[in-house]
Design brief:
Number of domains: 1
Radius of gyration: 16 Å
Shape: globular
Distance between the termini: 11 Å
Number of helices: 5
Order of helices and strands: HEEHEHHEEEHE
Structural class: alpha+beta
Largest sheet: 5 strands, antiparallel
Strand content: 25-35%
Number of strands: 7
Helix content: 10-25%
Length: 196
C-alpha cells in the first residue's frame, strides 16, 4: 500500500525496520535511487487509516500473481532514525497506516531504530512489467532483480515546492532542521534493486 500512496502523492516517506530475511537482520539503505516494487506481504485493510482503505481494495483488485509492474523510481532525500514513541506519534499525519500499526513496526526489534526514508518519487513514462519470481518473495527490504531495467523518462509525482513543503513539515514534526531542496530529476541510468 505504501507504493500506491507514494504514487498518488499521499505520502513522501517509507517506514523501514528491516525484514526477517535481511542481511544482518536489520535495515540499512543500500541505494540512493531504486525502483519501488509493490508487494502485499504484510498488507491488510485493517492496518490502514479509514481514508486510505480504498488503496487496499484497488491493489487487491489489480494484483496479478504472474506479473508485477514497476511504475515508480524513488530517490532518497534523507533518512531519519527515530527511537522515541513521541516521534512515531508525530509521524501520524504523514502516512497511511494506523497509529497501532506504526507503533508495532517501531517497537519490533527495539534495539534498532525505525528508519524514516524521505523519498522523492518519479512516475516512469514506460512502466516495466516483469515476471514474479520466487527470489523476489518474502519479508525483505531489498531485492536484486535478475535483469536491469532503464529508468527512462520519468515525471516527479510532486512539484519541487510541494515536496520540500512536505519534507519540511515532517522534519519539523520530528524536531529536525529543514534540509535543502531535493534533486528535481531522477538519476539517469539503470537500477536493479528496490525495496520490498
Amino acid at each position: 500500500m505504501t507504493v500506491a500512496a507514494l504514487d498518488r502523492g499521499e505520502q513522501v516517506l517509507m517506514l523501514r525496520k528491516g525484514g526477517i530475511r535481511e542481511d544482518g537482520r536489520h535495515f540499512k539503505v543500500e541505494h540512493d535511487g531504486f525502483f519501488l516494487y509493490p508487494t502485499y506481504f504484510h498488507e491488510a485493510a485493517a492496518l490502514l487509516k479509514p481514508g486510505a482503505q480504498t488503496l487496499f481494495d484497488d491493489a487487491m483488485r489489480d494484483e496479478d500473481d504472474a506479473l508485477v509492474t514497476l511504475r515508480l523510481w524513488a530517490e532518497v532525500a534523507d533518512v531519519i532514525e527515530i527511537r522515541e514513541a513521541s516521534s512515531v506519534e508525530a509521524l501520524g499525519p504523514f502516512h497511511i497506516f494506523t497509529s497501532e500499526f506504526a507503533s508495532k513496526r517501531a517497537y519490533w526489534k527495539p534495539r534498532h531504530p525505525l528508519n524514516v526514508m524521505l523519498l522523492r518519487c518519479f512516475r516512469l513514462q514506460q512502466p516495466q512489467a516483469l515476471p514474479v519470481m520466487a527470489e523476489y518473495a518474502g519479508c525483505k527490504s531489498w531485492v536484486k532483480l535478475v535483469e536491469e531495467y532503464p529508468v527512462g523518462v520519468a515525471t516527479s509525482v510532486l512539484s519541487d515546492r510541494e515536496f520540500e513543503r512536505r519534507v519540511g513539515e515532517i522534519r519539523a514534526a520530528l524536531g529536525h532542521a529543514v534540509a535543502g531542496p531535493a534533486a528535481a530529476e531522477p538519476v539517469a541510468g539503470q537500477a536493479g534493486s528496490q525495496p520490498g
